[in-house]
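Hi P.,

Sorry for the delay on this. The queue was packed all week, but I finally got your sequence through. Input first:
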Amino acid sequence: MQTLAFDGRTGAAGDMLLGALLAAGADRSALAVVEAHLPVRYETETVDRNGISSTLVRVVHEDAEDDSAAGQFDGQDHSHEDDHSHDHHHDHPHSHEHDDAEGHGHSRTYAEVVELVESMDLSDAVEEDALEAFEILGEAEAAVHGTGLDQTAFHEVGTDDAIADVVGFMLLLDDLRQRGLERVVTTPLFTGGGTVTFSHGTYPVPSPAVVEIAERADWSLRGGPLETELLTPTGAAILAAVAEGVDELPPMNLEVSGYGAGKKQFAQHPNVVRAMVGKGEGRLTREGISVLETNLDDATPEMLGSLQETLTDAGARDVSIVPLTMKKSRPGHLVKVICGPTDAERVARRLAAETGTLGVREHGAGHRWVASRAFEMATFDIDGESYEVDVKIASDESGNVFDYSAEYEDALAVAQETGLPVREVVHRAEEAVRE
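Then the structure:
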C-alpha cells in the first residue's frame, strides 16, 4: 500500500504542505486550475533551511506589485506588524516581501468559500477534500466565536491565497493518488509554544482555532519544541481532512521524500515539513466505535440470551456477556456492547429497556481495527456428491488473508446430510477456498 507520511515535529502551514508535496514528486501543473480561477500564481524555489534543501512556495497575487504592504504568507512566519488576525493564516514574525499574497483578495464567509470552490471545475475527489477542510475550519471558527457555520467569516483564511493553499494541496494530493497513493498519515503535530496575538487578544499557543480543529482530527498535538507558533489553522485543517494520525512513522519501503520550507529560519531547528512516500504494509480498516456496558445482578438466563438479537437489531456490532461477582458477593453479569458512535444512544436505551438497568456506561474507545470481510462459496465432493458451504475470508486492505472461517449453519446442514462430523465438513470447505 503506497503511503504518504508527514513528519509533524515542526508543525504545519498551508504553503509548507504545498512545498512538501511538490518536493515529494507531485506535478506542479496540477495547480493550473487554481491559477485559472483566482488572480494568483504559485512561485517555487529551492532554499536552504539549516542545511536541508527544501521547496519554498509563494502564492503571489496578481495585484501584489501595486500594494507594497500586501505582505504575509503562510510559511510558519507569522505576523503583520506583530498583530495577528484571529484565524491566523500566517505564522511567525518575518520580513515582508511585496509580492507575497498573504491576505490579498477580499475575505469571505464560509458559504462564499463553498460557492467559489464549487465553481472551480475540480474533480469530485478534490472538491470533496477541499470542502471538508473548509468545513473543518468553519466549524472551528464558529465554535470559537459562537456563530453559525454559514455566517462564519474567514477573514485571512477566506482570502485568495488561503484558498490557493487548501485547493492547491488537494490538487497535488490527487495527482499522487492518481499514481497509486492510497494512505495519508501524520505523526503528532507540534504546535510550538508561547503566545500569539490577534484581533481578539493574546492567547497561548496553540490558538483557539487549532484546538478546535484538533478535537475533530484523528491526529494528536504536542507542545514545543520552540516558543513560537508552528501549527496554523490552515495547516491543521488540511491535515484534519486527509490524514490519519499515527504515533510514529509506519514501516514502509521509502521511495521518495521531500521538504516544504517555511519562510522563517530558526537557529537550531530547520523550519521544514517533511513528506515521505513509500510502500507500507497492508492495514486493517479503522472504524469509529462506542463501547457501552452495564452490570446486572438480577438478569434471567432467557433475558441474557435474547440480548444478542435485540441489541443487534438496535445497531450493536458485537455483544459480550461476562459472569462476575458484584457487591455482597452476589453473582452478576457484565454486558458489554460495541456500536457505532451515532447508534450509541439508541443502543443504550434498548439495553436499559431490555434489562431494567439503572445506568449504562459509555467508554472512550474511539476506534477499532477490523479486517475486511468477504464470502466465497466453497464447492467440494463427498462420496461423489457436490456440496456448497459459504466461507468467510478475513484480510487486510491489501488482500493479505488472516483467516478462513466456514459458516457453521451451512457446515451443519452438510454434516447432517452426509453423516460426517461438522468439524470435518468445516475443514473441507476451508481447504477448498484456500486452494
